[in-house]
Amino acid sequence: MKSFFKVSLLAATVALAVGCQQEEAPKAEAATEQAQEAKAVVFQSEDDKAAYAIGLSFANYLSASLDKPSEIGITLNKDLVLKGIEDAFAEKGELNEEETRAALEALDARVAETMQQQAEEKAAATVQAGEEFRAEFEKQEGVSKTDSGLLYQVMTSAEGDSPLATDTVEVHYKGTLTDGTQFDSSYDRGETASFPLNRVIPGWTEGVQLMQVGSKYKFVIPPELAYGEQDTPTIPANSTLVFEVELVSIAKEEAAQ
């Protein structure tokens, strides 16, 4: 894991300047206009403008780096951060180089440990939620379960051929998490999706082979037949997935080639 706090000297300098400006801003209402004029930046050249832009960029980076740990419950005192920068420029730091490095490495270790613990707790909660959802869905009328654990319900029946795993299928579909959060939908995009059936998640490969053109099924796919422990921004690790799938057409392997 990358350190949140290996910030360049330039970034630290900028943060100190910004902090000082904020502390020195007049509080009296009558002095507001003068304060605004005093803080106005005059660019004498393109180099001045570039220098200022670099300062803004690094200050934003430093601010984001300090805020990041607060998201996982680690609170850092920004006043002490600025005090450390000030002491460094005054060459009177309370920590030597070795102590500074050790403190940052310890912080990185705490951040990594906390994030890992939270990820494990989230994954465990997702597993439990999935198990409970599948147990309830299995009780519904018309729900069947395959040997692999795939659950499906026929929403619209049809007659005709079913695809093989080697076929390319055209489908309309909507995918949600067990709490109803939608993460994908061909309906929303306004166009069907086509793909070789053996190149998608196992739950799809198995489930769509049960369908006929024109039919619509609801699949509840356990994590081992979906994305497993893989964690994405839209699908948490160990998620049970719910799909409504409409089989539009089948392109047999020979025709597809």
Derived from helix and strand composition plus strand pairing, the structural class reads alpha+beta
CATH class of the largest domain: Alpha Beta
For this entry, what is the oligomeric state of its chains?
Answer: single chain
What's the number of domains?
2
N- to C-terminal separation? 44 Å
SSE series:
HHHHHEEEEHEHEEH
Percent strand: 15-25%
Number of contiguous helices: 8
Write the CATH fold name of the largest domain: Chitinase A, domain 3
Report the strand count: 7
Calculate the mean pLDDT score and round it: 84
Main β-sheet, in a few words? Answer: 7 strands, antiparallel
Helix content: 40-55%
Cα radius of gyration in angstroms: 29 Å
Describe this structure in words.
The chain is an alpha+beta fold and 257 residues long. The chain folds into 2 domains: 86 residues, no CATH class; 128 residues, Chitinase A, domain 3 (Roll), CATH 3.10.50.40. Helix content is 45%, strand content 17%. Helix 1 packs across helix 3.
Give a quick set of tags describing it.
single chain, 257 residues, alpha+beta, Chitinase A, domain 3, 2 domains, seven-stranded antiparallel β-sheet, 45% helix, disordered N terminus
SSE inventory with pairings:
Elements: H1 9-24, H2 32-39, H3 46-67, H4 78-89, H5 97-138, E1 143-145, E2 151-156, E3 168-177, E4 182-185, H6 186-189, E5 193-196, H7 202-208, E6 216-221, E7 241-251, H8 253-256
Helix pairs in contact: 1-3, 1-4
